[in-house]
Write a structure and sequence with these properties.
Distance between the termini: 91 Å
Strand content: 15-25%
CATH architecture of the domain at 217-474: 3-Layer(aba) Sandwich
Number of strands: 19
Structural class: alpha+beta
Helix content: 25-40%
CATH topology of the domain at 217-474: Beta-lactamase
Strand order of the largest sheet: 3-2-1-6-14-15
Largest sheet: 6 strands, mixed
Length: about 475
């Protein structure tokens, strides 16, 4: 009898010890894992019982929370055109999680971010619930809405990015197709809305401005020009104006647009080649300056670099440069070169800022419920991509390019691009990058697959009117 009691006692003691060890592991080492588990409704309800911070820009509230009849806070996106801002704010859904700034700044918005402790130490020590902090963005509401309308009203798929060159502030970040986050955040409509956005062939949940990289075509000639000017070329340097050029070591030829000669053929100046976007001239110059110079210029302008905007950002790429044939194709923004609209805007903004590349940023500051600033962003210099003198020369070339672009206006420095992809007969992607030398605004536009204009579509025809409309909307920027 005593032996049975002893055995049972030891067994019970071992079970108790195992339980204590397991509880210790859970509380000490796995607490965050279980607390953050989406199946943990207790944590979910606790967060929904505290007001989540607002997202706003330029005095416009883009995301806010209001209590329902049960005292739980529900998210809504009250701007007049939430689809224009949806790819930026993202959504917050009970069923499908979060995206965009709602996801990346979740801790700030719900008040749990450790970085808020210094501003809210008293609440933390007393155990008082702290409402979420607010995000104030750099976006200009008018520019954002004009950019989105220019894309959506024309049925374009693509993106527009506008920056303030001197600081890197993002003034517009439009993605088309976009999405309205309201039905995704409403439990009554979320399932149907999710089905709609996830089956849309235009991929509205992808931020096309930051996340999608495409061949840039002739806007890349800005970088090729920078490499040339840094290696002995000038606006007066002579290059071929022939209708076609044979790539070294191959029988493959590259032609100018529509197989035309550049200003009648023969030798032409770099200024003429840039303003008329002559492919053959840039193939010649790119091969002459060499792979190292071209790669260095591309990296200086941010190709292949990611930025922390709180949104998914793809780096783009120059691609491999194994030989001069590849180098020639790359020099006109084809072959394996890819850029996002964000990177294209950074490229234009760098020229506008006397060759100094600034880091783009989207969140201006974080504020408390009393609107007192808790944390702010400051402009940050990345690198001097080119000297102010070279930047000035590129600006002169871009001013000449605008004069030779359909609908061109004096006072705008620009470059268009028409990028082949997908094989013969596939409509090209069309690009436009531009800035106003007398204003602190630069813009990049990409319209995918010719915007409905077919295989003859060009950047000047399709993308440039969008960019000019956004520059017009900048007004007193």
């Amino acid at each position: 009898m005593n032996r049975s009691i002893r055995f049972t006692s030891i067994f019970a003691l071992l079970l108790t010890l195992v339980l204590l060890v397991n509880l210790s592991i859970i509380h000490v080492f796995r607490q965050d894992e279980y607390a953050a588990n989406p199946l943990n409704q207790r944590g979910f309800l606790e967060l929904k019982s505290t007001p989540r911070g607002q997202i706003s820009t330029g005095g416009m509230v883009l995301a806010t929370s209001a209590a329902d009849g049960e005292g739980l806070y529900q998210r809504s996106y009250p701007s007049e055109n939430p689809t224009a801002f949806g790819p930026v704010t993202g959504y917050l859904s009970d069923q499908f999680g979060a995206s965009g700034l709602e996801s990346s700044y979740n801790g700030v918005l719900n008040g749990t971010d450790p970085g808020l402790f210094s501003a809210r130490w008293l609440d933390t020590l007393t155990g008082k619930d702290s409402p979420g902090a607010n995000l104030e963005l750099t976006l200009d509401p008018r520019m954002q809405e004009v950019a989105h309308r220019q894309l959506s009203a024309n049925g374009y798929e693509g993106a527009v990015v506008a920056l303030r060159p001197s600081s890197g502030e993002v003034l517009a970040l439009a993605s088309s197709p976009g999405f309205d986050p309201n039905p995704l955040s409403d439990s009554a409509t979320a399932a149907g809305a999710w089905e709609s956005v996830t089956t849309d062939p235009g991929n509205p949940l992808i931020n096309h401005a930051t996340q999608e990289t495409l061949p840039p075509g002739s806007i890349f000639k800005i970088i090729t020009t920078a490499a040339g000017l840094d290696n002995g070329y000038s606006a007066d340097s002579q290059l071929t104006g022939a209708a076609e050029i044979t790539l070294p070591g191959t029988t493959t030829t590259l032609t100018n647009y529509a197989g035309q000669t550049c200003a009648g053929g023969g030798q032409v100046s770099l200024e003429t080649a840039f303003s008329l976007s002559c492919n053959t001239a840039f193939v010649e110059m790119g091969i002459d300056v060499g792979a190292d110079a071209l790669r260095s210029a591309a990296e200086s302008f941010g190709v292949g670099e990611q930025y922390d905007l709180g949104l998914p950002v793809s780096p783009g790429s120059l691609g491999e440069l194994p030989d001069d044939a590849a180098l020639g194709q790359t020099s006109i923004g084809q072959r394996d070169v890819t850029m996002s609209a964000l990177q294209a805007a950074v490229m234009a903004a760098t020229v506008a800022n006397d060759g100094l590349r600034m880091e783009p940023y989207l969140v201006d500051r974080i504020t408390g419920t009393d609107l007192r600033e808790l944390r702010g962003n400051e402009p940050r210099e990345i690198t001097q991509a080119v000297s102010p003198e070279v930047a000035g020369e590129i600006e002169d070339l871009m001013l000449a390019s605008e004069r030779n672009t359909s609908g061109g206006r004096s006072g705008i420095a620009s470059k268009t691009g028409t990028a082949e992809h997908g094989g013969e007969g596939t409509p090209p992607h069309t690009w436009y990058v531009a800035y106003l030398p007398d204003s602190d605004v630069a813009v990049a536009v990409v319209v995918k697959d010719g915007g409905g204009f077919g295989s003859s579509a060009t950047g000047g025809q399709v993308a440039s009117p969008v960019g000019r409309a956004v520059l017009d909307a900048a007004g007193g920027q």
